[in-house]
Amino acid sequence: MKIYRNDSSAVNGANVWHAPKSNSSNIQLNADIVSKHRPDLDPRGAKFRVPSFSSLQDITAGKSIPIDVIKDRVAVLLQRMAVERKLKSNAAIPKLIARIFPAKGGMDEIAFNEILDTRNRSIIYESVLDAQTQVKRGDMPGIKQALDEAAVMSAAAATDEQALKAVFGEHHLRAAEIYQGITQKLMELSSDIAGKITVDYNRDGVEIGEAGSALFARQTIHLMGAVASQGNAAETRFTLIHEAAHLVANNIDDIFYYNTAGYKSLPGEMRIRNAAHFEEIPRKKKEEKDKAERDKKAQGGKKNGPPKPGDRKTVAPETEPAPAPVKVPDVNDDLRTAATVAIKRCWTTALNVFAVMRYIKRQQLEKNNAPFERNKGNLRSYSIELNLTMHEQQPDQMAITNLDLTLMEGIAHAFHLVKTRVYNMEFDKDAGYSEIEMVEKAIVQQLNHQQLLFADGEKNRKVFRWLYDNIYNIPIRIVK
Ligand SMILES: [Zn+2]
Q1: N or C: which end of the chain has fewer CB within 10 A?
Q2: Which residues surround ligand 1, an ion (CB under 5 A)?
Q3: In angstroms, rounded to a whole number, what is the distance separating the alpha carbons of residues 56 and 310?
C-alpha cells in the first residue's frame, strides 16, 4: 500500500502483507486480541519509537529495573531510530545515552528533547489505551461512505462473470457467492460502525505493518488510524473489502498478500480462500476507470484537472503511471519465496507477542490484573528470548513498561522492514545447507547489515530462530 510517504528510499512495490490467522488448536480465539488480517503498509511511514520522557522517568525512578539495563535498552531503541534518521543529533549512541542519563543520576529532559522530536507521535509512544478504540466522531461519515462504496464495488464484482472466470477459473461461482457475502458484510458494518469497528489511533498499526484485522468469531474489524481517516481513499476501500472477505467464511485466510511472491501462481481452489484475491477485481476496475478518465482528459486537452482522492500526489495528473518493473526470471525465486514466508512467520509471531503484551497492559490499566498474573511465566520467557526488560526487573515488581512495548513493537517493525529487502538478499547456496538454513542466513545478514534489531549478530540469529519456531506457541488465550 502507498498510504504513507516520506523521502526515504525504501523499496517500491511493497504491497500487501497480512499475517495468517492463528490456527493452532491450542489457541482459543479472543476477540480483543486475535488479529486475522494484517495488510502491509508502505514501511516508509513506519518508525521505530521510544517511550515518552515522563514514562521513561517513571521507569527509572521506580528502580525495579537496573539503570544499566534501562540505558542499554534505550540505546537499542535509539540505534534503530538512527537507522531511519529519526534522531535530531548525529552523535554516537553512547554519547546520546550519557546526555540523557547524566552521571549524577536521574534523566535530563532538555537533552531528551534535543535528541528526539517529542511532539511527533511516530517517534514517541504515548498510550496503549489509544491503540484500540472507537471510531472518532469526525471519521464516522468517511468510514460510512467508504463502506458503502466498497459494497457497491463488491456487488459489481459478484456479477462480472468474465472477470470472475479470469481470476478464479473453474471456482468462479463460489467466488461470486463470496463477493455477495462481502457486500452483505460491508452493509452490516456500515449499519453498526460503533459496534463492529475499532480503530488504532496510537499508530501501533503503522509501526508494525498492521493496517487492519478481522475477527470472524465476533464479526468485527479493527483498522489503523490512517485507514479510518482515509489516508488513501482507494486503498481504504480495498482494505475494507479484504477485511470483509475474512468475515464471510472462517476459512478465508491470508495465504499470500496482494501481488507478493506466490500470489500470482496460487491455484484457483486456494484463491477462493485467500482474502487478497478478492481485492483483485475491484483493483482492476479502478485501474481501468482511472485510465479511461485519463484518456478522456487527454482527448479533451484538459491536462491539468484537479487530482482526485486516491491519486498518488507525487504523480502529476497528466502523467502516465510508471510501468511496472519488468520481473527478470531469477534462479533464486524459490528461495525468495521461502524467505518471504519465513519473514512473514517471524513477523506474525512478533505481532502476536506484542498483541498479548498490549492486551495484558490494557487490562491492567483497566484494573484487571488477572491476565497478567496468569501469564507472568510467558512474559518472562518472551523477555529473555527477545531481550526486553521484564526478566531484569525485581520479580515482585515485574511489569510491562512502555520500554518493553516499544522494544517489542520495534522487533515487529524490523521484520516488517526486512521483508522489503527480500529482493536484495544473497543466498549462500552451500551444498551442506538446507533451504531454511540458506533463508535464515540471508535474513539475519539483512538484519545485521541494516542494523534493524541488535548490534550482536548472534542475538539476531537467535531472535529469528525463536520467532520462527514459536509461531504456534504464543498463548493467545489470555482471558477465559
Ligand atoms: Zn487478511
Answers
A1: C
A2: 18, 37, 254, 275
A3: 40
